[in-house]
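Input record (one chain):
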Amino acid sequence: MSVSPAEFNAFREFLEKKSGIVLGDNKQYLVTSRLKKLQEEHGIKSLTELMTRMQAQPRGLLQEQVVDAMTTNETLWFRDTFPFDIMKNKVLPELLKKQPGQRLRIWSAACSSGQEPYSLSMTVDEYDRANLGQGKAAVQIVATDLSPSMLQACKEGEYDSLAIARGLSPERLDTYFDKTPANTWKVKQAIKSRIEFRLMNLLDSYAGLGKFDVVFCRNVLIYFSPEAKKDILMRIHATLKPGGYLILGASEALNGLPELYSMVQCSPGIIYQAK
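The corresponding structure, as predicted from the sequence alone:
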C-alpha cells in the first residue's frame, strides 16, 4: 500500500488528536507496516478508505484498533533494571519511614501489556521478603493505558514463553508465575492483587486518579509533541504528593520545569522529586 503525502498528513493529524502520538516526517513506512494486517482483515485498500471508515464510526472499534496498531507495545520485565533497584533500595524505605502505616500509591502510566506494573508489584514483594521484621508494605499500583485490548491482556496476566523471555529471570519466573496447561505463564494472584488497571489516555483529565507517592511514566513521552509533553509533566506533578517521585525512561530527561521538580542522582540513574 502506497501512502500519498496528503493521506499521511491527514492520518498523523488524526493520530495526534486521538492519542497524542506525533509521527515524524517520512514515517509512511511505519504506517504501512503497522496497519497492513488490520487493512487486510477489514478489506481496506487505502489509507483514505481507512480514514473514511473511521470518520463514519467516530467511537467505533476500528479507531481503537488503529490506535492499538500504531501504539508501541513492546516492553520488558524490569526494563533498564535501575528504576526497580531504586524503588527497592531508596524510594520504598524512604517513603514507608516517612508515612508509617499509610498506604503508598504508585501510578504506572501507559502500562502497555503489563510488564511494568507487574515488575513493580514483584519489587514490592522482594522488598517485603528482605525486610521481614517490618511487616508487609501497603502499596497500591494504578496502571493505565489508552488501549482496551492491552488492558484486558494486562488483567489476565498471562504471557507466552516469548514475552516471558524478555527480561524475566528464572528465579522470578518460579516465584511469581504459575505455568498453565496451555504452556503459558500466569502471574500469581498475590502479585496481581496490588494492581488496579484503568483505561486512560494521557491527554485526558487525571482528576479521578487521586494522589500518588510515585509515578512511573517511562518511554512514552518521546512520542508526544514538546507542548503535550510539558502539559503532561505539569499535570503529573499535580497528582504527586509533595516529595513524591517521578521516574522517566532511561533515554528521557526532564528539560525545564525546575519550579516543579528537583533532579535526584541515584548512581546509576536519575529520578525527579516533586517540589
